[in-house]
Amino acid sequence: xxxxxxxxxxxxxxxxxxxxxxxxxxxxxxxxxxxxxxxxxxxxxxxxxxxxxxxxxxxxxxxxxxxxxxxxxxxxxxxxxxxxxxxxxxxxxxxxxxxxxxxxxxxxxxxxxxxxxxxxxxxxxxxxxxxxxxxxxxxxxxxxxxxxxxxxxxxxxxxxxxxxxxxxxxxxxxxxxxxxxxxxxxxxxxxxxxxxxxxxxxxxxxxxxxxxxxxxxxxxxxxxxxxxxxxxxxxxxxxxxxxxxxxxxxxxxxxxxxxxxxxxxxxxxxxxxxxxxxxxxxxxx
Amino acid sequence: xxxxxxxxxxxxxxxxxxxxxxxxxxxxxxxxxxxxxxxxxxxxxxxxxxxxxxxxxxxxxxxxxxxxxxxxxxxxxxxxxxxxxxxxxxxxxxxxxxxxxxxxxxxxxxxxxxxxxxxxxxxxxxxxxxxxxxxxxxxxxxxxxxxxxxxxxxxxxxxxxxxxxxxxxxxxxxxxxxxxxxxxxxxxxxxxxxxxxxxxxxxxxxxxxxxxxxxxxxxxxxxxxxxxxxxxxxxxxxxxxxxxxxxxxxxxxxxxxxxxxxxxxxxxxxxxx
Amino acid sequence: xxxxxxxxxxxxxxxxxxxxxxxxxxxxxxxxxxxxxxxxxxxxxxxxxxxxxxxxxxxxxxxxxxxxxxxxxxxxxxxxxxxxxxxxxxxxxxxxxxxxxxxxxxxxxxxxxxxxxxxxxxxxxxxxxxxxxxxxxxxxxxxxxxxxxxxxxxxxxxxxxxxxxxxxxxxxxxxxxxxxxxxxxxxxxxxxxxxxxxxxxxxxxxxxxxxxxxxxxxxxxxxxxxxxxxxxxxxxxxxxxxxxxxxxxxxxxxxxxxxxxxxxxxxxxxxxxxxxxxxxxxxxxxxxxxxxxxxxxxxxxxxxxxxxxxxxxxxxxxxxxxxxxxxxxxxxxxxxxxxxxxxxxxxxxxxxxx
Lengths: 285, 273, 354
What we know:
The complex is a heterotrimer. Chain A has one domain: MetI-like (MetI-like fold, Orthogonal Bundle). Helices cover 73% and strands 4% of the residues of chain A. Chain A contains 13 helices and two strands. Chain A has helices spanning 4-32, 50-57, 59-89, 97-105, 112-123, 130-137, 145-148, 150-174, 179-187, 192-219, 224-228, 241-251, 255-283, and strands at 34-37, 40-46. A two-stranded antiparallel sheet of chain A has the order 1-2. In chain A, α3 (59-89) crosses α12 and α10 (192-219) runs antiparallel to α13. By secondary structure, chain B is mostly helical. Chain B has helices at residues 2-33, 37-40, 54-62, 65-96, 102-113, 117-130, 137-161, 165-173, 178-206, 210-215, 223-228, 238-258, 260-267. In chain B, α4 packs parallel to α7, α4 (65-96) packs antiparallel against α9 (178-206) and α9 (178-206) packs antiparallel against α12 (238-258). Chain B is globular, with a radius of gyration of 23 Å. The two termini of chain B are 34 Å apart. Chain C is α+β, with helices and mostly antiparallel strands. Chain C folds into two domains: 4-228, 3-Layer(aba) Sandwich (Rossmann fold), CATH 3.40.50; 239-352, CATH 2.40.50.140. In chain C, β14 and β15 (295-301) form a beta hairpin. In chain C, α2 crosses α3 (107-120), α2 runs parallel beside α4 and α3 (107-120) crosses α4 (136-149). The chains are: A mainly alpha, B mainly alpha, C alpha+beta. Chains A and B meet through α1, α4, α5, α6 and α8 of A and α1, α4, α5, α6 and α7 of B.
């Protein structure tokens, strides 16, 4: 019983996850080296690294990488900075704090497509949208966000959705901040800003790192928002790597090139994942 | 003290103001859902109006909303239950029958979640197409289950580990064998974890858009895909969009409120306490 | 063959020999206390008796039966955990009746037994509450009640009082002593607090580094410690132990030619403080602690740069002040002599070596 039971209990999970990891990976590796178009099924000729070359020399490629990095960097920056600020604001009790916190985390639970359309039509529409109304109120010309600033619009949507996540993490972390330490610092003559800089911020160092890494991993796959609003455009202005792969696979039906791109994305994600795993591992007894 | 009161007022007001600004889009969504189409596009936007359920009715009638809702419910529920059935034994084994490899296996499981979904898009699509499972609930359920499995294992493992070891020892002293320990101590105490893990994964599956958009359409589409179809406007439709969205997101947002703690635990893989 | 017998019991943690060949015989109805500093192995030994930690070597017999390899659930022992380990999802009644329910005991019998235990422990009004709703002291009583209800062969207590505040600790200590008197059950009690050991035990087992230093009744250990470790572990304030070379005038105290190379130990109550000029050991006062019923006088004797400190305890108040010169005396036949290894070689303690 001793040795067999645990193995039996674990096997369904281990086997399924193993298959889930290996099968797509092997297939992707295979596809990336052949010529395979879904519209022309037939012989899959081995073409070596040609797919990679094609993917990388695609004029959209460098744009998509730049966009991905820009998206990642901006959303992370916005969510971390605003997240810390908001968490600090709601950390100490005040009337209605419970409701405020519940409200603040709501955007995270809105499904991405609803999120995208909410912004596209309700907020960003240049005639009827709320932002347009606000612009008009201040006497300025409303902006056609999705057409003129597509990537920025996507960044805004995604940041809005992930801000609650960062905020919640920081709120949780702030709760374990040592009050005694704060008081001691106060008695040593520290003002609010110094307390923040020397005590609060270092304490938040770990959660910030975690938020950054988690967001790096999940934001790389931002797709639904782009699909539903800008379709990657105009041109390739709001195409990220994930959307580019999608375009190749399900719009150009070029499985080979898409697979090459997918491997590229996986490598990128692995880099972030390695760091995150190490950090989690440290926390795991 | 005067200073403290001032600070409290400032904090309260700013917190409320900022929150209202941040959450405004959602508030506006809720408001618009109860308007007629005319009211919805009125310029300047109306804050006060006579609420109506007209848009909700129209959404229900016109776009077989219920069909997609049913798909969402089925895929979320089944994938959650299936996931729990697979994850619970594994988590139990790792929590109570630890070996030297337990930690590594757990880390490996978590790492599978960190791969971008787009990396598996092509093979999964091709496999689904070959198996004739495109636009089928089965494909969605399988993919949702696999996507959430690492998180489930992780959260259940954490929950099981939280059961104090000495309570199990006390049960042993009281005469319980291994099965007795499980039945009388572990199962009742783990119920909470099972419920909250299930809840969180329900939320994640419900909101799943990437796979829904790519693997399904008219037949097996979930609410996520339905909403996406409102992307290209066909005439006046804002109130309906709001109504549809509200119906799609409301239950999950509420559930989400209750699973805050699990969210932190689950999505940061416990890296933040 | 005694009721509970440990024969050469061993425990290894990796390469560390945590329990080193422990031999112990416990009679039925005895209250045995395992005492010792942190890490001495007392809890480990208790857990080995309970069956929660495996016995690596030697054997364990209970009432004639070898239970060395028997699982905890079959040993007919009850344990009160330091953290109480109450089942959080069960009421007090269910907590206390759990073992009986597992044994499929008749419901009426369960009801009666639990009620009786609850009465003894003053828990009757809490029977329907859950552990969450109880105070620390109440939880502790439930833990004890859980053990009583089973009427096991031996009660095991693992530092049960350490999570209670001081007032409650003293109170509960008295209650435990009363319980033992009323129920007469064989009990093994682990603590690091020697006051609990002295007051509760029929016999005390002093442990250090996984081995028994001495076993005996509390007063036995107090009056006739087998070595310096036991001598200094039992008794508050600690026994004065001084290198014989550092204390002048010992010949007169101990007897000419009897002073060994080693240490001499004297309990504070056996150190007499006389005004300067009197007493065989000159010194001066360092510190006075007036506790009301007792007065402790800390005196520095011997060479002033590396002199030694002796603590004296007396019932009378004193007019002495720090800096005052005094002379100290040692009550005859009250000192203990230890060799360099700490073993008792003479003095009052040596009388036991028969």
